[in-house]
């Protein structure tokens, strides 16, 4: 009798594990589809153009910051 209860208990645990894995399957499938589309968008020419534009924007903002600092220093010198 104890052997039969161990078999039934093991089968019940196996069923719970199977149900849990099957419950996570749609979530994993969704994440896989999202990953696939994000990866394909990242490699697209439009994404490359966007990255280049962002880099140009950063360079432009640094240049504008340097110019603003030069103007501020010149104004401080003129006020003294």
Task: Provide a descriptive summary of the structure in words.
With 80 residues, the chain is mainly α. It has two domains: 1-43; 45-80. The chain contains two helices and no strands. The longest helix has 41 residues, at 2-42. It starts with a helix and ends with a helix.
Show the helix and strand layout.
Elements: H1 2-42, H2 45-79
The ordered string of helix (H) and strand (E) elements is HH
Q: What coarse outline follows from CA principal-axis ratios? A: elongated
Overall mean pLDDT stands at 85
How many helices in DSSP terms?
A: 2
Helical content, roughly? over 70%
Structurally, how many domains make up the residues? 2
Tell how many strands the DSSP assignment holds: 0
């Amino acid at each position: 009798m104890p052997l039969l209860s161990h078999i039934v208990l093991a089968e019940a645990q196996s069923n719970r594990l199977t149900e849990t894995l099957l419950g996570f399957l749609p979530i994993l499938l969704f994440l896989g589809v999202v990953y696939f589309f994000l990866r394909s968008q990242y490699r697209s020419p439009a994404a490359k153009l966007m990255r280049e534009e962002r880099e140009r924007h950063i360079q432009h903002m640094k240049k504008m910051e340097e110019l603003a600092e030069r103007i501020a220093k010149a104004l401080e010198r003129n006020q003294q």
